[in-house]
Q: What sequence folds into this?
């Protein structure tokens, strides 16, 4: 049985998701943003075997505990190819800008749009959803109807686009693709409570505003 434990970590309360199979104890850690002791405390308490660390994007509040979690678990780190250098560069990930001291950590694998991952006995698809940052992704498992979507969409809102690398037009294009996902997929988001694709598609007025402000272009992927 697949379970997800969500820990709000760090001063910005970014969500770190620990996704695991309660029968095999295999696990994936998504966005270890801070508080490595809390993250690893849960891993040790449940006897989990972490086989991968997945990053929805590499802003500082989502990678603050990355180096420590990787060191303790030995698990490989995966991220979209556009942000492969961000985990080692404080100017790119924003830690220098906001005054946070983050230990650099290299990545092991890079994703591109449409790639599939095999983890926890399941297939997961990587969807590239830029706008909040150049390499933002959602990792989706349709069989389990769940996704880890980072700061693309929140319950009733969307991720900001005014940080370095943000782009409101690309965010609008990503939101158009997001609302086409199956409506019953539960999104475990970067901040705040989880939500359903269908709920946000219908009730999220910020999404609607983006789509109206930045209509689709002919060359949009």
A:
């Amino acid at each position: 049985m697949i379970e997800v434990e969500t820990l709000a970590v760090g001063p910005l309360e970014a969500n770190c998701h620990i996704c695991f199979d309660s029968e095999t104890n295999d696990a994936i850690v998504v966005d270890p943003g801070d508080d490595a002791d809390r993250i690893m405390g849960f891993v040790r308490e449940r006897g989990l075997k972490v086989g991968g660390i997945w990053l929805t994007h590499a802003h500082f509040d989502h990678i603050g505990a990355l180096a420590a979690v990787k060191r303790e678990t030995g698990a490989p780190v995966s991220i979209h190819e556009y942000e492969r250098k961000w985990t080692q560069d404080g100017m790119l990930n924003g830690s220098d800008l906001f005054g946070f001291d983050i230990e650099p950590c290299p990545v092991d694998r890079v994703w591109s749009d449409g790639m599939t991952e095999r983890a926890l006995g399941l297939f997961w698809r990587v969807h590239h959803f830029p706008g909040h940052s150049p390499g933002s992704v959602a990792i989706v498992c349709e069989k389990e109807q769940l996704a880890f979507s980072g700061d693309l969409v929140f319950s009733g809102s969307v991720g900001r686009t005014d940080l370095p690398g943000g782009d409101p037009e690309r965010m609008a294009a990503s939101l158009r693709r997001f609302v086409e996902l199956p409506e019953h997929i539960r999104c475990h988001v970067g901040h705040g409570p989880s939500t359903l694709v269908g709920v946000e598609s219908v009730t999220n007025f910020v999404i609607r505003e983006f789509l109206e402000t930045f209509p689709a272009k002919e060359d949009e992927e």
Notes: Helices lie at 36-46, 60-63, 66-73, 90-93, 95-98, 168-178, 197-203, 205-213. Residues 135 and 144 are 24 Å apart (CA to CA). The chain has a mean pLDDT of 97. The radius of gyration is 16 Å.
